[in-house]
TrEMBL record:
Name of the protein in question: Cytochrome P450
Protein family membership: Belongs to the cytochrome P450 family.
Organism of derivation: Schizophyllum amplum
Residues annotated as transmembrane: 6-24
Cofactor: heme
SUPFAM superfamilies, sorted: Cytochrome P450 (SSF48264)
Length: 559
């Protein structure tokens, strides 16, 4: 990439200013006694290893194995960063400390570029206000209602749910029909699972959460689907040294300079982010207008966006959201809820390929329950009757976390407790870690979810059985909203859509595993891409982005 001389001069000036600021800060750092790895780059420290490891999570597992639950490492210019997977430390930061730990400020402007000032970006009182307005759309009842409306639409529509007009099939059934066509037309065809699942989950999110038809499965040229599919891999996989430098140094500048930089210094990532934001804002504007009109006519729906418009109207001028904040929520929901869920479905299918006995047992359970209940469509109660499905999902969300890191920052001086002490550089045991205001902290979702004390000595093995046996999992500290995993985060920032994601994952698995048998060419090595989220990628074909070629066959009928 060629840089203009102004960009280079600006970069040099910023570098000098930041080096000086960090030099002062480093002298004050209280993390020096914690053990950690050597830097792998003179300027970028250990970041090049952490962000570009062979596979997302692998560096985390090595740190956990060598140092335990708390690690210090150097980021840019020797600035000290804290990495944690200790259950009590994670619990403290994600849950107990509340707003004493905020979203890392180096991530905020970046996510603002894609989603604007939505719930995932704002802080403090604004964040409380956004969550209060959004929560009604994401509660247990609403998640079930909006998704059940969809699930039932493939059969008879329940009287308490709205009809879906001309749409007859839930998206996964529609996708499965297309797969049947492909495998009938071409012997030994492989299906690139993320290509299809990403479109189907976008359609599902549109219909269930927004009452909007993206038509991504029918319309291969759909602009929004093309922009958002594989977005993280396109924008973030394998970052160059320059991208890492920019991502960590620029946010240290005063906000106006950060925004000037983002507006005038060209980058592939920012071009992608800008494109996505523009497209999603167009859809959001249309939706907010439609939903507001429907509300005025007393015809408000039960989808998340309608509930959001309704809750916002009730909140009134003081407690409500401005128009740009409402628009930002739609981009937030698409970014937060689309690829994360699509990837989780893909990883679960891959584990079913790698563990054929698990696949067979799951199919047997699905078919037995469906035969026994004999219902036209799926309901939340159908899933409740499938304990093995629940175990497979929990294990998949544990083993392949949607995000492998959650980045936080101390909003004040704090002391972080540890469940298990770690050995300091002077050989003494460290039981708690004092941090100063502004300290960046990485919570390793990948490593916490593989904690052997919590999940068993075989935590690095995919084993759904652990969720069915009493005493296999020992709760060390309450951490997350679902199955005590850190996958959906925790506390005041926990994922708003986790119930929705679980219902969606359940639906896709039931429909797909009932109908198809899945296998993968053993020669194809699938890696967890490191792109904030973890898209499946093929070793040696990283440049092609998200891929998961599966051998899909019709499953033999039940005896
Ligand atoms: C398997 C799928 C998913 C995973 C693994 C996932 C994971 C996460 C994580 C780790 C966070 C950040 C938690 C933190 O910072 O402490 C988050 C936040 C969020 N997620 Fe999800 N998510 C998923 C699906 C969804 C869905 C389907 C939706 C919406 C329909 C959604 C909406 C959100 C929102 C709005 C936030 C921001 C919450 C806030 O900042 O207050 N997510 N998610």
């Amino acid at each position: 990439m060629a840089f203009s001389s102004t960009t280079i001069q600006l970069a040099v000036a910023i570098t000098i200013a930041v080096v000086f600021a960090l030099y002062v800060r480093r002298r004050r750092s209280v993390l020096a006694g914690l053990a950690g790895p050597e830097s792998s780059h003179p300027i970028l420290g250990f970041l090049t290893t952490l962000l570009r490891g062979s596979e997302a999570g692998e560096v985390d597992f090595a740190l956990q194995n060598k140092y335990g639950g708390a690690v210090r490492f150097d980021s840019i210019f020797g600035m000290q960063q804290l990495w944690l997977c200790d259950p009590k430390a994670v619990q403290y930061i994600a849950q107990t400390a509340g707003y004493k730990f905020i979203r890392a400020s180096d991530r905020k402007e970046d996510s603002r570029l894609t989603v604007g000032d939505g719930v995932a970006t704002v802080e403090g009182d604004d964040h409380r206000r956004h969550r209060r307005i959004m929560l009604p759309g994401f509660g247990a009842k609403e998640s079930r209602t909006s998704l059940c409306a969809l699930l039932l639409s493939q059969g008879k529509t329940g009287k308490s749910y709205r009809t879906r007009g001309s749409r007859q099939k839930f998206n996964v059934v529609q996708m499965a029909d297309k797969w049947v066509q492909i495998i009938q037309d071409e012997e030994n065809a492989t299906i690139d699972a993320p290509f299809w699942i990403s479109r189907a989950t976008l359609d599902a999110l549109g219909e269930a959460a927004l009452d909007y038809q993206f038509n991504a499965l029918d319309d291969m040229s759909n602009e929004l689907a093309r922009a958002f599919s594989g977005l993280f891999a396109k924008a973030r996989l394998n970052p160059s040294n320059w991208s890492i430098f920019e991502e960590y140094v620029v946010p240290l500048l005063p906000l106006t300079l950060v925004r000037t930089w983002n507006a005038y210094v060209p980058s592939k990532k920012r071009a992608i982010q800008h494109h996505c934001k523009t497209i999603s804002e167009d859809v959001a504007r249309q939706l907010v207008q439609e939903k507001s009109a429907a509300l005025l006519a007393d015809k408000g729906g039960h989808d998340i966006m309608s509930l959001l418009v309704k809750a916002n109207a009730s909140a009134g001028a003081k407690g409500g959201m401005a128009e740009d904040e409402m628009l930002a929520q739609l981009s937030t929901i698409i970014i937060a809820g689309h690829e994360t869920t699509a990837n989780s479905i893909c990883w679960t299918l891959l584990e079913l390929c790698r563990n054929p006995d698990v696949q067979t047992r799951l199919r047997n359970e699905i078919r037995a329950v469906r035969r026994e209940r004999n219902e036209p469509g799926l309901t939340a109660a159908t899933f409740d009757a499938m304990p093995y499905l629940s175990a497979v999902m929990k294990e998949s969300l544990r083993y392949h976390t949607g995000l492998y890191h959650i980045a936080k920052e101390a909003a004040q001086d704090e002391v972080i407790p540890l469940l298990r002490p770690v050995v300091g550089t002077d050989g003494k045991m460290i039981h708690e870690i004092p941090v100063q205001k502004g300290q960046n902290v990485i919570l390793s979702v990948a490593a916490y979810n593989r904690d052997k004390d919590v999940f068993g000595q075989d935590a690095h093995t995919f084993n759904p059985e652990r969720w069915l046996e009493d005493g296999y999992i020992t709760k060390q500290a309450f951490v997350g909203v679902y199955a005590n995993l850190l996958t959906f985060g925790g506390g005041h920032r926990a994922c708003l859509g986790w119930r929705f994601a679980i219902l969606e994952l359940s639906t896709f698995l039931v429909e797909l595993v009932d109908k198809f048998e899945f296998a993968i060419d053993p020669e194809v090595k699938i890696l967890r891409g490191a792109a904030i989220i973890m898209p499946p990628i093929i070793e040696g074909e990283e440049a092609k982005g998200t891929q998961l070629p599966l051998r899909v066959r019709l499953a033999p009928p039940m005896d």
